[in-house]
Recover the amino acids of this structure.
């Protein structure tokens, strides 16, 4: 992007939700502390260290012990919202509701109370990739029973925390959970079954979400008055040219990515193009029925309209162009062939340390505009956005600081110029953390953590100052240049 891009000097609305986001496995540590059960990330990092950069989250940022310090950092930063996740196996060690763990329950009770005492609203994710291994051994998201196990877990959370938590997220990034947990195998539980188990996972997860939403509606909504939603991640896909085939290729990628989950929870079914293409390729591959499962009429009713507002995690963008129909490989289906387009990132887009991650601020504006247009102008929250480096850079104003500035400026244009009802922005992340398969080699925090020091000290990076300025003033530029 051009360096002369004009950074907006307008102020974000007074009630805009600014915060940071995190996930239990990435920060807590205490993997077997005080009765916590094993989850699929504990198992993956212990049994398959080679799949996880030979590192693990056994201690991570030690936020299980240092949560008060983290709340102090949040308070110092001036955020009004904190997004975090509950480790299912910390509160329910086996995953089933008959196994509850008082120490785990107390941990989140205390955290929530401390946040609220500091006027920081908790935005709570129920599942950020870490299901208890007992449930995984029963098939995890490939077992339809998972729908009911999740509903039971959700009810347990609403009962315990629902008087204090008013903003609930059922699932974080089901695309990652299913595509990489059960398709490519890059993420725990590291199951390799592309084009089959990834879709089965998505199917059960969507119904689990829908059932949990309905249960909240029926059993809690009128006394607790909270909101329930799902977080969906997607790249923006830019057509490689303006020929109709490339425009269609880009749209098709958005539908197979954001729409895979966004359509069912808004409209009650998968996008037509997904159903058509997977069914027709499945048939050519010799399957009796589509590899993409079908919702029953009853399931459609359950899932239709089950997000109180929409969420998106944004990191980067890609270009898409039309391609010849990928060859039929009956024994090796995969999601990319189901999409059937070329996807790439041009060499002249600004790189980061991560191969798939180029800095594309304008893509964030287009993505939230697409979500707004596609789903009837709902309220939208950006629930993650952040910049990868190798974690050694303290003076990160021109990298991470600039990244947040440019993405926020584009998002603000979506709000003020495109009429997108954007109400919040959660930066990933407050502190450096365990970055899944990359271990500690990639980092996104406003605070550096020394992972070789048993005390896990936090040290501010320069970007923390910038983000403090943004959230406390609502301005992306110096306050004196900001207009109201
Ligand atoms: C997010 N992609 O995952 C996760 O929600 C976080 O837990 C994670 O730490 C964060 O990204 C930072 O990397 C993603 O391939 C993983 O586009 C991959 C993609 C996007 C998001």
């Amino acid at each position: 992007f051009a360096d002369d891009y004009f950074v907006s000097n307008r102020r974000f609305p007074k009630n805009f939700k600014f915060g940071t986001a995190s996930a239990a496995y990435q920060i807590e540590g205490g993997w077997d502390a005080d009765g916590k059960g094993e989850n699929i990330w504990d198992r993956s990092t212990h049994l398959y260290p080679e799949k996880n950069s030979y590192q693990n989250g056994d201690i991570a940022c030690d936020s299980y012990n240092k949560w008060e310090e983290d709340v102090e950092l949040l308070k110092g930063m001036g955020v009004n919202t904190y997004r975090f996740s509950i480790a299912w196996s910390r509160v329910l060690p086996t995953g089933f509701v008959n196994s509850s763990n008082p120490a785990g329950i107390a941990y989140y009770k205390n955290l929530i109370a401390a946040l609220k005492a500091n006027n920081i609203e908790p935005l709570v994710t129920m599942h950020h990739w870490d299901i208890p291994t007992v449930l995984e051994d029963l098939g995890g998201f490939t077992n339809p029973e998972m729908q009911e196990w999740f509903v039971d877990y959700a009810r347990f959370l609403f009962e315990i925390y629902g008087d204090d938590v008013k903003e609930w997220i059922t699932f974080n990034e089901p695309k990652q959970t299913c595509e990489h947990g059960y398709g490519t195998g890059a993420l725990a539980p590291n199951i390799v079954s592309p084009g089959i188990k990834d879709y089965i996972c998505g199917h059960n997860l969507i119904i689990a979400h829908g059932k949990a939403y309905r249960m909240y509606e029926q059993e809690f909504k009128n006394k607790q008055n909270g909101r329930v939603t799902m977080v969906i991640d997607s790249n923006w896909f830019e057509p490689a040219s303006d020929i109709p085939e490339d425009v269609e290729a880009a749209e098709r990628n958005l539908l197979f990515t954001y729409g895979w989950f966004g359509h069912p929870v808004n409209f009650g079914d998968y996008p037509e193009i997904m159903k058509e293409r997977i069914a027709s390729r499945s048939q050519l591959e010799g399957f009796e029925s589509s590899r993409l499962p079908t919702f029953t009429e009853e399931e459609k009713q359950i899932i239709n309209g089950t997000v109180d507002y929409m969420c998106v995690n944004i990191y980067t963008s890609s270009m898409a162009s039309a391609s010849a129909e990928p060859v039929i490989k009956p024994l090796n289906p995969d999601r990319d062939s189901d999409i059937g387009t070329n996807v790439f990132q041009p060499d002249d887009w600004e790189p980061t340390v991560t191969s798939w991650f180029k800095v594309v601020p304008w893509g964030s504006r287009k993505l939230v505009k697409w979500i707004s247009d596609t789903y009837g102008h709902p309220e939208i929250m950006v629930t993650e956005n952040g910049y990868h480096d190798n974690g050694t850079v303290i003076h990160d104003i021109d990298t991470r600081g600039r990244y947040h500035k440019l993405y926020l400026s584009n998002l603000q244009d979506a709000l003020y110029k495109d009429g997108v009802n954007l109400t919040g922005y959660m930066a990933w992340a407050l502190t450096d953390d365990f970055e899944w398969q990359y271990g500690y080699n990639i980092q996104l925090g406003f605070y550096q953590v020394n992972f070789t020091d048993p005390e896990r000290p936090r040290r501010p990076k320069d970007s923390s100052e910038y983000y403090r300025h943004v959230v406390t003033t609502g301005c992306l530029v110096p306050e004196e240049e900001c207009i109201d």
Q: What stands out?
A: The CA atoms of residues 243 and 285 lie 30 Å apart.
